[in-house]
Amino acid sequence: MAQKLPAPQSGTSAKNRYSAVSDALSKGGAATVVTAGGKPVDLPPELCEVLAAAAREFAQGRGVVVYPQDTVLTAQEAASLLGVSRPTMNRILDSGRIPCDRPANHRRVKLVDVLAYKRAMATQRDTAMTELLADAATIPGDVDGFVTTRRSANPSHYPIEVNR
User: Fold this and answer.
1) What is d(CA 117, CA 121) in angstroms, rounded to the nearest whole number?
2) What topology does CATH give the domain 72-136?
3) Bridge partners of residue 41, in order along the sequence
4) For site-directed labelling of 44, which of 12, 127, 139, 158 has its Cα 20 to 30 A away?
5) 40-43 and 31-34 as β-strands: parallel, antiparallel, unpaired?
């Protein structure tokens, strides 16, 4: 069953309109859009998912870039996507953690491989943080989430107040 997107009301902010579009498209199924010429066009569910995700990002004030899955990036573009320097990216590529091609003397990386690496690193980081927090909960001297340090436990380490 096709979803009818709500018409923007006068005075409604762009954020609210994007949120309304995202909510309507996120309900699943297909949606129908009406072209400028008045012709209805059914959208497949996969496209609805992409549009809903884009609308959510727009509602948060963020931009969206859509690339085909077979997009190939330079090492610099991949480094920018991961938020690392180009030399760090080259070390990642040379270690084999992300596969790459080397036509001539340049590295080329598939976007899907960079995104898979980014997801894997996020998962690894989340797991490490969860383990670290679990370990911190077992530290003796932990009071209300704060660890008693030597300085705070030993009054002789506090600065001496001089009354004049």
Assistant:
1) 6
2) Multidrug-efflux Transporter Regulator; Chain: A; Domain 2 (1.10.1660)
3) 33
4) 12
5) antiparallel
